[in-house]
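REVIEWER CHECKLIST
Item 1: Sequence provided? yes
Item 2: Single chain? yes
Item 3: Sequence as submitted:
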Amino acid sequence: MLVPALGSMPKLARLIGEEWVQLYDGEPSGKRLADFAAHLRSWPGGAQPNPLFDPAKLVEQPASD
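Item 4: Structure as written out by the authors:
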């Protein structure tokens, strides 16, 4: 995910992993988008984000109050 470095996005990047959530400042440039696309193509098949954020496990957990 490529997101602006605003609000809670830097924290999200740290929690999930900066290889999964990449930040940019200002307007996204064509070069930045191309670099991010190249980054995505470099991932091995079956790559998984931080296991704490596995969607299947999140669905299984009861919501906390």
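Item 5: Key structural point noted by reviewer: The chain has one domain: 2-60.
Item 6: Recommendation: ____
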